[in-house]
Amino acid sequence: NIICSIIFGDRFDYEDKNFLTLIDLIEENNKLQTSIQAQLYNFFPNVMDYLPGPHQRLIKNVEKVDKFTTNIVMEHQKTLDPTCPRDFIDAFLNKMEQEKGNEDSKFTIETLSRTTLDLFLAGTGTTSITLRFAVLILHKYPEIVG
């Protein structure tokens, strides 16, 4: 939720079905990434696109998470106040507006969607795994809590 407030400018209720679905998709993808098919997909994406396996589920999950972030970006576009950025997305949209005439600009909606997705996935996955291992270590070695 801290990552969400930085990127999306809003926290989600812990009972929010969309948020819980998103967390479930990320958890499932963390497990699917270790499959041999997912690893082969990184090397042979054109071939693996036609083969069944857990990598297909991983791709569908990423598409769902991407749709979620794209919807938030589109909502931000509708409610943007350039004088008062709420979060990362608003700051990026403001920069896009500044770069409007520049054909070489990397500040595009596609880049914003991808960057938002990357920040969300990397921040959420890394943070939750780090916290999980910290709790396990503290549980195994209670004397270091002292």
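[next item in queue]
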Amino acid sequence: QGSAAEHGAPPAPERVLFPPTFSVSEIKNKQRRHFMFLRWKQQQRKEKLAAKKKRRKEREALGDKAPPKPIPKTIENQRIYDETTVDPNDEEVAFDEATDEFAPYFNRQTVPKILITTSDRPRGRTVRFCEQLSTVIPNSHVYYRRGLALKKIIPQCIARDFTDLIVINEDRKIPNGLVLSHLPEGPTAHFRMSSVRLRKEIKRTGKEPTGHIPEVILNNFTTRLGHSVGRMLAALFPHDPQFIGRQVATFHNQRDYIFFRFHRYIFKSEKKVGIQELGPRFTLKLRSLQKGTFDSKFGEYEWIHKRREMDTSRRKFHL
């Protein structure tokens, strides 16, 4: 028997590009090492895609007899159980909701009126962020501080029937903190702010938001602390949304990071819905929850994030 070349057949392509004991780090030449690493990653992707297609064909062949798909392990579904997780049917939780500081809002006895202010001498990026935030939150007013302490601002807000005070802090011309104080009796939440994107910095944004009251979506606020924070954020928006505006403000909690997005949706058909982001977007991380209004010296704190004590496990979350 002759070889394939003697019979005129083309030689078979090499199926294994790298030996089992191959290590890219052993290559001394930097450019060659980078090139071989890219080839190795490409081979890994091809093998992974081929295995995925093979599993899909096997499931199609088995039909209804196919075994259920395995659930991938993630940090979220491996979360350590928290004793303060809220049961929606708990009578104690229902009583607390009926008597807490936000009960008049949820009973439609008060209408939110928000004051948005900044730290002293805000820069252009913080100013634009406050202006865009005021277009998201209905019945909100932007005033800039000029050396006035927060303790003096709060009585003036209460006298003018403001229900909430939002303070945007900045560092090196970048917004990096948010203080939310519910008036007149608190509580006050301190957040670390990151990943701020204005409307011009978001790709494929829609037109400017309209004056309609948006819908509010709160996701994954499951513990007692998360429940309080979620009610605090919901109380910023009027309770009766105007669905004709098709605008949605979303606070999504994932691993104790609160992601804010502002969208407009449109019904393309009976089954398909398209959404476009309006902006701005930002991410919040709760640092502390304080009883009463803002008081940095003598305030009583309900919860303070202590990183070295609380962040001992990546699967432990507080909201």
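[queue empty]
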